[in-house]
Amino acid sequence: MRPIKTLVFALALLPLGLFAADKKMAPPPPTFSFEASTDTAGVQAQPATPDQSVPQDATATAADAQLFGSGAPGSDDSALPAAPSISDEELISNSMEVAYQFYHAEDFVGASQACQQIVDRYPKKDILGTRYLLALCEEHNRTYPDALRQYAYIIKHQPKSTFANAAAFRIGLCHLALGRTEEAIRTFRDIIDFNPQSEYRLQAFIHLGNVYRSEGTWRQAEVIYKDMIRLYPCTSWSAMADQYLAEAYAHQGEDSAAIRVYRLMQDDNGCVPLVMRAQAQLKIGDIQMAEREYQDALQTYKTAIRVYGDVPGIEVYSEERIELARDGRSSSATLESRGRVVNMREAVSQ
User: Fold this and answer.
1) In whole angstroms, what is the distance from residue 262 CA to residue 243 CA?
2) Residues contacting residue 10 through CB under 8 Å, at least 6 positions apart
3) pLDDT above 90 (res 256)
């Protein structure tokens, strides 16, 4: 299955309407308290990456001096023409440009410092976008208690906002990173049960299911994946949930239920991608091999080659398994023959 991590960090910037160049999602940004002009992708046009020949702290100092006034010792500002008046909103917007620049350059320390300066300078302003980016940076820096404090502030001050929805989800991820599994489960469950309109509800389902799978609590995982199939029908997420639901059944020893799910995935209704259908076919054969149903497994793998042979890797894997199934069938036949001989000798001796 495709890792989810890329999607998670693409979604992390959803409330800001921003994404890094290598991210694949850019949902529309909500309205927040300062303006940010956008380029053709809905993303603020960012300055170039800071000159790496200049130390980070020196770069930040130069940017701060430009945005907030130099105040450098020995500078004679009185000899210069009067600067045009700049509003607080413009200063915040310009400062956020610097923060975005650092963030997209993956200089999360520099980005967090830039955001912290804005928060410290304007403590009474409603700048949740700045606080959210600050929390993301703290999360990247693995200073999770600081990130949790910022996320909690956002939820407290704008509980119905997209920022709050994102913050609630990120709190769950922070708890996971800290090894607080129970707290993470409660956080994801709260999003699922009490905030059905959250943009992060699907992500909460996915991560909660992953937690249950990693903990080996397959019955709870089964419930999660059934809900995903019901709530997100005919999507790549429901197809993924099908696979994990079958896996949950198999781990509970319910092989027939697992095979039933895999066979349902074979229905060509356009909802399950071809690669997933091919993988489901192979899973059926693997279950049959584990149950020593070698003849059935042999036919399953042959079907995989016939139907899904064009999918990369399917033919090679199936041919290897066919050989194992033939060997297993021969071994079973030999064992059965030996068993009949032993039974016959016992009968004769009696």
Assistant:
1) 7
2) 19, 23, 24, 25, 26
3) yes
Query: Which residue is listed with tokens 């696979």?
Result: 243
CA 309 to chain centre: 31
| Residues making up the chain, counted from first to last | 350
Q: How far apart are CA 290 and CA 244, in angstroms?
A: 18
79 belongs to a structural domain: no
pLDDT per position as a tens digit, 276-325: 999 999 999 999 999 999 999 999 999 999 999 999 999 999 999 999 99
Q: Say which DSSP state 287 is in.
A: H
Instruction: Between 342 and 183, name the one with better pLDDT.
Output: 183
* Domain CATH for 112: 1.25.40.10
Task: Provide the number of structural domains found in the chain.
Answer: 1
CA dist., res. 194 & res. 167, Å (int): 15
Does a structural domain hold residue 165? yes
Task: Round the average pLDDT of the chain to a whole number and report it.
Answer: 80
Residue 35: give the domain boundaries. 1-71+87-215
Q: CA nearest 91: which of 110, 68, 115, 125?
A: 68
Q: Which amino acid does the sequence have at 244? A: Y
- What's the whole-model pTM score? 0.71
pLDDT band at 18 (very low <50, low <70, confident <90, very high): very low
Q: In this structure, what DSSP letter does residue 45 have?
A: P
Residue 209 near residue 202, CB atoms below 8 Å: no
How far, in Å, CA of 114 to CA of 95, rounded?
7
